[in-house]
What does this fold into?
Amino acid sequence: MARNFWLYGKKRGQRRSGSPTVGNAAVLGFLSCTLLVGLLVLGWMVWAFGIPQLQASTRYEKTTGVVLDKRVAQSATDEGPVYRPELLVAYEVDGRRYETWTYDAMGVFAPGRERSEKILARFETKREYRCWYDPSDPQRAVLVRVPSWPLGLMALLPLSFIVIGGGGLVYQLSYLGKSRERRAALSQLAGQLDPFDQTHVVDSEYPFVPNYRAIADSPGTRLAFRLPAERTEALAMLFGLAATLATNGMSVLFIYLTVQGHRRGDPDWLLTLFTVPVILGGVATLLYFVRRLLVVGTSGPLILEISDHPLFPGRRYRLYFSYGGQVRLRSLSMRLRCEERTTFLQGTNARSENTLVFDQVIMNDDELPKAKSGAFELECPLEIPAGAMHAFKADHNEIAWRVDIDAKLAGWPDLHRRYPLTICPADTRSSPDDTWRVGDHPTTRIDTEN
Amino acid sequence: MSEPVVHIRLDAPHEALRPGDILTGALWLAGVAASEIQALELSVLWHTEGKGDEDMAVHLFQRLEHEEHPPLDPKDPVRFSTELPRSPLSYDGELIKIRWCVRARLFLADGHEVVKERPFRLGHVPRPKALAE
It folds into this structure.
């Protein structure tokens, strides 16, 4: 080796300076221990509880016994005393009398004396009950054979260790000693075969170009396809609602505590002083939320349709924009943008960074004519630059295209919408019939007034 | 004794190829005896560089084991051929760069590995700054 390796590597995202061999050995060791612990605990549970329960259910013979006495047995543990119910049962086997303290096959102690007392309350002394005895050892008997479901749930814990440890070991060993390229090829093949996870299926026609086929399921009314908007408005509304509830809930609480203090004659003036900005914050978030709600309610749908999809560099398309709100549009701007998006690990934190690498005005009108109603429509050309990079999406890196619409409303907050586009690599196919040349058909406003 | 070396040659007269082109070439070994070879892997792949964590995908993967018949002979070049996909194209962006290459990885019997890359361009996408207004 050219240099010594360090057992502990300085964390610099993916570019660690430690030893992969030591790292792999540590991971394998950890997974092996996890698997071993799971197997040991599960094995102990099966031996201590499962097998006795199974024997009682399948091998024990049924008879009738008399309950002579009952008690709550107690055992001391580090976490405190634990209890289990016990009943003194007398029964006969082959003419011989037996007496034994018993309840079920597992004999598990549990915290909480009340549970044991509740069980004992179901049995009366000097009364006959059905019981089961071990024919190979008649001194052993039980009064109940129903398995305890909490123990079944407890088995999930060692099972999870087995799944994590065993699954992780299989995964690590299958990739151990394999080159990065071979691991990548195997992962791609596994992703193609997984019927439950289609997110890693690579499109065979345009590999790593984001899925554009979904747009085909969204036909337009005037042009071929309707472009879906990014769900930013819904998220903003959700955030606004959550913030409004949180801040106003705090306001109510602070007001209540302050008023209570004043009514008792023991006012907390610091609390009183602090309540004022809290109330102001609650009112501000409430006003913001109500304003956004009114905008969404009165602005109506913003519809963007396109003449063809997916798009190709060097081609021209038509866009159709429709606004159906009651509030008048004062200005409208549409831009074609391309953004590079990356995610990376910085230590143990995942960070992201975006940058715009293309920004072109599609149309920009600062003074739209006043209309009787708020409704507004227009058609305009969209030209994709000849050298444009196609859309691209991988696990940590993405090149995304979109149309941004910014609209100013008269007396209301501005509207912003983003409509993702898919641009495929340049194709040599002939131009579609519904494209047109810029200059032949400039931006056209559609008069919606009668 | 000289270090093992892997040579990769592409048949294309230039380094810029187009989607759908057939990429052909050959690789051969020098400075290594046949008995020292454990396996040879050949990949045609793309990977990202830049700010984000690396993404990589393999378009063509071949692994040649020395135990196969006939066994690997360092004197014989290993030829490869594959039709290049439509995407992703080579790209030199601000945060993201997409690089295509042919990568050969020689596994030696003593546990060492020798890696050699031969980059090439797929498509011709200009740098994005030329497009920005």
The two ends of chain A are 83 Å apart (CA to CA).
